[in-house]
Amino acid sequence: MPPDSDQPQSPAPDTPAPANAQSRRFFRKSRRPFALDDARRQGDISQLAFLTMGGRDPAIAFLNTDNAALGGRPLTVATASPEGYELVAAAIRRWPSGPGFK
To answer: What CA–CA distance (Å, rounded) separates 30 from 50?
Structure first.
């Protein structure tokens, strides 16, 4: 017997349920705001690395990789204090650049 077209059809058992609105969020709001000085140092060191190291990929790789000489991840060290920023900035400025270096 064919289904009655006047009655609503139930979804197929393999149809996924609608996603919850919260599950679509990719970022969560921080519990406390990032200090203005920390944010400024983070942006400045990121820009310096990007411009000095030849682009996004080498800069991100350097900033996010533990560095024993700097005492941790360069991005974290540079963001934590003005002294850390100067230490990381000096390391970036020593970065080899020019033809033959990539």
So the answer is: 26
Rg (CA), the chain: 25
- In a 13 Å sphere around the CA of 89, the CA atoms on its Cβ side amount to 15
Q: Note whether 64 and 78 are within 8 A (CB).
A: no
Please say whether the beta carbons of 41 and 78 come within 8 A. Answer: yes
Structure tokens that stand for 44 in this block: 């400045």
Is the separation of the CB atoms in 52 and 46 below 8 Å? Answer: no
- The three-state secondary structure class of 60 is helix
pLDDT in tens, 2-11: 555 555 555 5
Contact 54, 11 (CB under 8 A): no
Q: What is the pTM of this model?
A: 0.65
The two structure tokens encoding residue 29: 């709001």
Question: What is the phi/psi pair of residue 90, to 5°?
Answer: -65, -40
Residue-wise pLDDT for 32-67, tens only, equals: 777 899 999 999 999 999 999 989 999 999 999 999
